[in-house]
Amino acid sequence: MSDIYLSVDAGNSDTKVEYRTPLDSVARYFLMSSAVEEVTKSKLKDYRERKGWLGSPVPEKQAWLEWNEQVFLVGALAYEFDPCDRRVEPKYENAVYKVLAAIGVIVQKHQLATTKKLKVRLGVLLPCNEYSDRHRFQKSLELMSSSYQFRGQTIKVKLEEVVCRPEGGGLAIARMRLNGEEWFSRQRLGVWMLGDRNFTGLYFESGELKVSDSPLIGFSFMLDRIIERTSGLTRASLTEAIFQGLQEAQKTYPEDSSFPCRPPWEELEAIKALATARDPSLRSLEVKDIACAIESVASEWDEKIQKWLKRIFPKRLTEISVCGGRFHFCSDNRATL
Known about the structure:
five-stranded mixed β-sheet; alpha+beta; 2 domains; Nucleotidyltransferase, domain 5
C-alpha cells in the first residue's frame, strides 16, 4: 500500500493538489500559489531571521526545497522574493518543484514518518503541446525526490507510479464513460480548457483525437496587454476588478436583458476603484482610460481566440466540454462554436 496517492495540476493561477493517505476515507485537497523562485541559502536565511519570529505559517504558505545545494521557494513564499515570470518556460520543470513541495506539505500536515522511503503514486497534467516532456519530468522528479529537504526536514520518496496525462483528456474520457464507446464514436466532440497560462483545445471525431493544441494565449497574457496601455495596475488587481465587475454587472442587469456579455466597464465600481488620482476630473479620465484599454484589448484577444477555435474545431461540433475559471470572460466566443 502506498503512503500517499497524489494528483497535481501545476497551473499558472494556482497549484491544485488532491491527495489521500491510507488513513483517509475521502480525498483531501489544498491550493498553493503558483510562483516558483530559486534563491541562495544565505538569502533565505536572512529572510527567516527577519521574519521567523512572526507567527507559525502553515507549510503550504511557507514552502521551500533544498536539493543539491539549490534552494527553491514554492508558492506564497516565492512572492516575497520578486519571482521571475515563468509562464513561457516548459511547464514540467516547475511542476517538479511543485510536486516535491506538495509531498512535503502532506508529510508535515499529517506528520508522516520519514525514517523510511515514502511510497507515492502520482498523477499530473501537462499541456498537450508539452506532453512529450513527460519523460523528462519523470526522470527529474525521480532524481530529486530520492532525497531532498522540505523546510529543513529530509524526505525520501519512492515513486511507485507516475501517470502523466494531457490537459483536457479527462473530460473526453468522462463523457465516453458516461455514454459509452459507441456514442463516443459517433460524436464530433470538442474540449476547450481556458487557463491562465495557456488554452487547450482537443477535437475528437469517430472516437479518435484529430486535432490538439495548447498555445500560450491564456488570460494572463491579455492582462499584460492591458497593463501596457495603462499605469499602476498589476495582474492581481486587474483580475480581481474584472471579475468583480462581471459579478456587479450580473446584479445590475437581469439575465434576460439585452446588455452585452461585456459590461460597460466605465460604469462599474470595481473598475472605478482601480483609479488612483485624487482630483475628481483626473480620476474620471483615468477610469475612462482603463475601461478603454480593457475593451480594446479584449476585442483583440477575442479575435485571436476565434481564429484559433476555427482552426482547432474545423467542423460543427455535436458537443463541446468547456472548463476553466476564465470562461465567463470569454463567453462572447460561444457563437464561434
